[in-house]
Amino acid sequence: MSKHRLLNGGPASLLILAALGLTFGACKKSHNGGGSKTDSTSLEKSNHIVVIYLENHSFDNLYGSFAGAVGISDATSAQITQLDAKGNVYDFLPTITESSAFPTNLPNQLFDIDQYIANDALTPDVLHRYYQEQMQIDGGKMDKYAAYNSNSQGLSQGYYKTDLIPMLGLAKQYTLCDNFFHSAFGGSFLNHMWLIAAASPVFPNAPSSIVATVDASGNVVTDGQVTPDGYVVNTSYTVNKPHPASAAANTLVPNQTLPTIGDRLTDKGVSWVWYSGGWDSAMAGTPDATFQFHHQPFAYFAKYSDTAAAKTVHLRDEKEFIAAAQAGTLPSVSFVKPLGVNNEHPGYSDVALGENHAVQLINAVLNGPNGKDALIIVTYDENGGFWDHVAPPVIDKKWGPGTRIPTIIIGPYVKKAFVDHTQYETVSILSLIEEKWGLSPLSSRDQNANPLKNTLQ
Q1: Which superfamily does 25-59+163-198+236-455 belong to?
Q2: Is 120 left (phi over 0), alpha (psi -120 to 50) or beta?
């Protein structure tokens, strides 16, 4: 057994540090002057960056009672107490109509989900869309998550017991970021785009049936996939393969030409792959029932279209990631997107199943030949409609960031048993990759984002 072994995500002995024989050099200031001084050689020596992209949980929803982190106990009564759309205090949280497991008279406060549904069982989904998240945040008051939640109402105020979640041991052993926000308001589709492009996709002349309408103040009147000014913000499918057979042809998003982190890496001669669970079956026309077509962002771009040779080079199945990790042949940058059943998304995955799968992926890297110089980033695409008490920073009023999400940084050069309070967002991952390989930024957002260097020794 490898000396890196992490059993079931539990805390591993800190003697592993001595076993690894780590040494560290001089420090320098972090990117754009943000954060504290870090060891430049830690980033230089981290030659295999792995991003594991999970689904739909806020920080307080999973790590709200993590020791040393800013969590639920730091929330004010005004942040916890939910208001209806008119600004009135709810007597009870709105009924969670999609499940009979929850009482119909839940007090207007936070509640422990585990007492009704264990973390290894499915819960209903919670609403997470572009316009609605902005209304849930309510200008930073964080008091309308239940109001703008047509899927499962009061479930937005539920949380899991931190000491029962499978990745707790990893969070304790390595670095947990408690001030990390998903970069774009809304759901999975848009945040996957920001993970690779730091920008929103466009759909010129989209059919009116999928275009939202807004009032003079910018408030949504009729929701849709596309904004009135032509940006695709809610779940949509690519004109390329794979997409659902049932998707209407005129609603398929045309090929995008924005630059991506993949383009930047390729131009620099740096190897990379997007690994997706169930990819081969989906491309063969037999997708798994939980395969999520809108979780495959590179497939929306012209450089990775059906006729592009780069598609078969860079878009691969997750099973190939496992094999490469075990063989020590990982590319310099790996993005790993688990199959729906394994991605922790409420409605079709559960916390325990998703996190145990993530631990398996992490173990495959740390136990393999590339573990000696790996930097693993485990984060979530967005909050999934779950409440969090920390108001997101106001960086771009149109795009975000949105709600705070958990992020764990793992590897031999990562600070151990550390909670990092530095402000980060999803595109901080791009900033880190860009700094590591000297790449040009994709937009002002990744150019100005702190590149996670305070997590390094």
Answers
A1: Alkaline Phosphatase, subunit A (3.40.720.10)
A2: alpha
